[in-house]
Known about the structure:
Elements: H1 9-64, H2 68-76, E1 84-91, E2 96-101, E3 119-121, E4 124-133, E5 136-146, H3 149-199, H4 213-289, H5 295-327, E6 335-338, H6 339-356, E7 360-364, E8 371-374, H7 376-392, E9 399-407, E10 410-417, H8 424-428, H9 451-461, E11 465-469, E12 477-484, E13 508-512, H10 516-528, E14 532-536, H11 539-549, E15 553-557, H12 565-575, E16 581-586, H13 591-600, E17 604-607, H14 612-621
Parallel strand pairs: 7-9, 13-14, 13-15, 15-16, 16-17
Antiparallel strand pairs: 1-2, 1-5, 3-4, 4-5, 6-8, 9-10, 10-12, 11-12
Helix pairs in contact: 1-2, 1-3, 3-4, 4-5, 5-9, 6-7, 7-9, 11-12
Amino acid sequence: MKRRITGSIQRKVMVIILITTFAALLVSVIALLTYEARAYRDFVINDLTTQADILAVNSASALAFNDPDAADANLALLANRTGIVAGAIYTISGELFSSYRQAGTDVEFPTSVQLRDPEVEGDDMKLFHPVLQNNEVLGTVFLQADYELGDRIGDYLLILGVIMGISLFVAALLSLWLQGSVTRPILAVTNVAHKIVRERDFKLRAPRTTDDEIGTLVDAFNAMLGEVGQRQQDLEDSNLKLQQESDERRNAETALRLADRRKDEFLATLAHELRNPLAPMVNALALLEAPDPPPDTARHARAIIDRQLSHMVRLVEDLLDVSRISRGKLTIRKELVDLAGVLRSAVDTVRPLLAAKDQSLSIRLPEDAVHLQADPVRLSQVFSNLLNNATKYTPPGGRVSLAAVVEDGIARVTISDSGRGISSDTLAVMFDMFVQDTTTDLRGQPGLGVGLALAKRLAELHGGTIEAASKGRGRGSTFTVNMPVEAAPTMEPEQEVDPASTDYARYRILLVDDNVDFATSLSVLLSRLGHAVEVTHDAPDALAVVGEFQPDFAFLDIGLPSMDGYELARRLSKRLSSDVTLVAISGWGQKEDRRRAREAGFEWYLVKPVDLGSIRSILQSQAPGEKRVAPGGLM
Length: 635
């Protein structure tokens, strides 16, 4: 297992440089001392050998002639050599012939003489050299000299130690320089890297301090940080987008589940609300079909049918308005109206409901007239929906109040009740489509959950707002409508209306509709008004009779079999004179349907269910052949 090297790069560089320098110096010192020891030994040996050779040459005659004094004289010359401490000359037989000791020494001369290599004994070196004459050995020269290797090595060590210290100091300076030019930039990169890992901030950059390879490394590191930071940002943006999409998908799934649940609740409520008026209508029809019903019974039955039919028409109109809201097709026709008149119309609509539940209604209106730029029918629908909602949630004998004030150019209409109040959960979604308070028992209370949503949208189309508030369960609720006020109009004298102008002539009317009951009942009503009516239930029959009948008005259903009302209108226009007035009757009332009808030649467009009053208005306002379109027509 490899050992992991720890520590900073600065410390490592310094340690490496110092160890390298010390190792190099140590090897150099050892090599130098080894060389010096060998050189000093060779020097001493050579010096002693030379000296011994001189003595041998000079002392050969003294040995040959047995002259010790001459030998002593030669040895006495060694006094000039301070390094030689002793010297002696031996005869061939090994007897001491002559000797010399340096003053102050007590050297003992060897007792036996044997030629051998120089020897070192302690601090002395001993050497034996033969005395030759004519290649004949006459004796032996012995020399002993000081061998000061230890002192020399000590001196060398002192010198080398100083050199080594200076070298290590220089190496330390070199290490500091390397730290400034090499290790500090690397450490700066390391510190930035650690900080990025710790703080996840990829905007940090390492400073560039050199223009060499280290500087290139710093630039590459910074470029890498930029790339990593960009990818990190892209990844975070992608994660955020995925999170948002996940939240949106989760919210959409929740909304879909809620919408599906509301749809089921709405369909169940719709079925219930449509069955409710049908039951009394069926009973009323049974009373009318009885033989010779009493006049009061027949009148009561007709009142039931009329009342329940109005309720069904109201339900259908609400559904049509909801459809228009969802497609953004709901429009209003603004005119200058009196707020008090609009509120009275709304109150008249809900008075039967108030009376049925024995509820009291208090009304407080401004003394001066308040004028609004609004659609009177639609604005009245806003307040009637709110009043209907108030009486719906208020128990029998409860109180409902309506108050209107003007503040800072805003008409503020408040409708309050003493009813069951609104739960906080329902209050948050009160104006959403098909929402009803599920925490309240509403059995026997009619409604589809579209009234408040419709009222809110109508108020917004008038430039106003609706706010709902409730203090809690059993403490009632308050709805406030804010509408911008218009300046009072300039009064003009009323024009007298000629009563004779309301009279109308009797016309020849062609009625084409595949709904036999609708066509038959409408034909009877028009005939009672004195008009001549020809009824057919498809386009071919209408085309067959039109030439002989020559109608003044043609009421055509759009959804006819085999040929729709648009095509029938085009063909009738070719066969009849321009005096005939074409009126479209349809269950569809969208803008596109009206456009197609206008292109086909229709001058009026009626949406089912059609009431007799609308038809009488058409017959009264436009004589055949007059190409005028009054309010309620195609435009």
